[in-house]
Amino acid sequence: MVDLSRRRLFRRNTGNSDNLSLPWIKNAESFTDNCTRCGLCVDKCQTKIIVNGDGGFPSIDFTKDECTFCYQCAEACPEGLFLSKEEPPWQAKAKIEANCLAINNVECRSCSDMCDAMAIGFSFQVGKVAQPEINLDECTGCGACVASCPTSSINVSNL
Ligand code: SF4
Ligand code: SF4
Ligand code: SF4
After folding, report:
1. What fold, for 92-158?
2. Does 94 sit in the ligand 3 pocket, CB within 6 Å?
3. Which among 14, 88, 125, 133 is placed 20 to 30 Å from 156, CA to CA?
């Protein structure tokens, strides 16, 4: 039997803290029961962020690039595992972890430069460099900020 908690311990950081499944997945809980691991979504992904994750099931790796919400993974899937394009792709949001440079008082704003949704703001606090803050209403969970972070301090997960 595969010890998933142990595997998680040694997994390379993908900027995806809860093994986020693909956008528009109908049912994340039953995904591994129904996905045949055919790899068609992996081949079709516009930005090549779909990788073979735990057990060979497709998973997102935001260290490679962002999700453009192109819907090609969904279109490629022969198993009917995706919602229609009119539905929201997911509830995923970015989260900044405690090892962020700015939180540790080192000037850095790389993540906000990458955010097309302008969801990352910086606020001034006495005695500190400007501190990042993610506006969860604006964040699309695209993951564009993840690869830009020099300290791998951003994870995207379903809230
Ligand atoms: S929506 Fe497009 S970019 Fe996002 S995971 Fe699917 S194929 Fe890749
Ligand atoms: S996940 Fe996308 S929208 Fe959210 S903060 Fe990062 S770059 Fe902005
Ligand atoms: S890029 Fe990373 S280290 Fe820099 S402010 Fe954003 S989260 Fe912090």
Report:
1. Alpha-Beta Plaits (3.30.70)
2. no
3. 125
